[in-house]
Structures are given as C-alpha cells and as structure tokens.
Design goal:
Number of strands: 3
CATH superfamily: Rhomboid-like
Largest sheet: 3 strands, antiparallel
Helix content: 55-70%
Strand content: 5-15%
Shape: globular
Strand order of the largest sheet: 1-2-3
Number of helices: 9
CATH class: Mainly Alpha
C-alpha cells in the first residue's frame, strides 16, 4: 500500500517540512556526486555506527540516505504527514520535535545493536515520529492509498488510524523477527529506529502541546 495524500487540511505553509526535504535532497545529491571511496568515507564519518558511539552522529545520520528509493520513500511520507504536524506544533517546535524524534530513533537502534559496525542512515526514524504524532492528533483523517488488486492498482480512502497502526505493527514484529534471526545488527532496515521514533513522536506531540496560532487559524477557517 502506498499513501498518496491525506484528507486533513493544513492551515499554514509547512516551511520546516519543505526545508527538511530540500536539505535531505541536497545532502543526498552531494553524496552521490562523490567517487565511491569518498562516498563510503562520508557515510562512515557521518552515519550512526553503534560500536563507535558519537552523539553528533545520532543527528547527522538522519540526513543521509542509501539510495534514490530510500530518499524518495522517506521524503514522500514526510510530505504527506509532516505538514499537519508542523501546523499543530508551529514551525519552531516542529523542528525541535523532528530532531528529538530522530535522536530517539537513533538511540533505539543503538540500544539493540551496541556492537554493530554497520552505519545506520536515513530519516525514517524521525519521520516515524511524525507519523506517531499524526496518529495521536488526526486518527480520524483518511489517507488516499494506492492498493494493488491482483495485477491492477486502485485507490481507497483508509482511516489514518488503520494505516498507521498497521505500519507500526509491521515495524515492531519485523524488528522482533530480526533479533530472533540474529540479523538486527547486520545491516538492512533499522526496524527499532522506526519503533522508537514512532513512540517518541506520539509522546512528544502530547508533551509539546498545540500551538496557539494553530487554534486561532483553525477557528478562523471553521
């Protein structure tokens, strides 16, 4: 299932979400412009390597991506869910929220793979936090989703709560399965970064609260 758009209106321009997308794209374009040796060195320098724990890497790693599909998938999800969460929190708090979710995601992956020398990269943990916040704030929104039916594709409007809970359950059990098969620290998808980021986002959005400007804008439109 591929989410295409959501039904939840946004009452402000998502400047921070746009800036995050642009930043991730520019960093990726710089990375792919390097020769293979320099590219690997760049990833090793700024990726999160549990066996070489450095606080700064917990943040820099969330702006790195392993390939075009990795980048496009993450930025697509950020665009769908990020504007509404930014709308609720306000621009400044949303940026802090995003970085804290990325930190929680990186720490979650680190705790399960302390001896790993494989670099973890990607914004998916931080974006999982955005999705967790979206679930808390907009559970009744509907997500227009592209769904394969045999050899054809069609679209359905699916409640956000179903989409996001389903996504979280898949991440959680995939992470448990990776531990059971001793693959949690051998590269691949950082399942527990997704789980930690999602839970952090759901909690942080409640702690950080709703911006007063959002309430005034919403009341104006309603």
């Amino acid at each position: 299932m591929i989410p295409l758009r959501d039904s939840q209106p946004s009452y402000s321009t998502p400047y921070v979400t746009i800036a995050l997308i642009v930043t991730n794209v520019l960093v990726f374009l710089y990375t792919v412009s390097l020769d293979p040796f320099s590219r690997n060195h760049f990833i090793l320098e700024y990726g999160m390597i549990p066996a070489r724990f450095q606080l700064i890497d917990l943040f820099t790693s969330i702006f790195l991506h392993g390939g075009w599909l990795h980048l496009i998938g993450n930025m697509w999800f950020l665009w769908i869910y990020g504007d509404n969460v930014e709308d609720v929190l306000g621009h400044g708090k949303y940026l802090l929220f995003y970085l804290l979710c990325g930190l929680a995601a990186s720490l979650g992956q680190y705790m399960l793979n302390m001896d790993s020398r494989v670099p973890t990269v990607g914004a998916s943990g931080a974006i999982a936090g955005v999705m967790g916040a979206y679930l808390v704030k907009f559970p009744h929104a509907r997500i227009v989703t592209l769904v394969p039916v045999f050899i054809f594709f069609t679209t359905f409007e699916i409640p956000a709560v179903l989409i996001l809970v389903y996504w979280f359950v898949i991440q959680f059990f995939s992470g448990v399965g990776s531990i059971a098969t001793s693959q949690a620290s051998q590269g691949g998808v950082a399942w527990f970064a997704h789980v930690a980021g999602f839970l952090a986002g759901a909690v942080l959005v409640l702690i950080m609260g709703r911006g007063e400007r959002y309430k005034r804008r919403r009341d104006l439109y309603w």
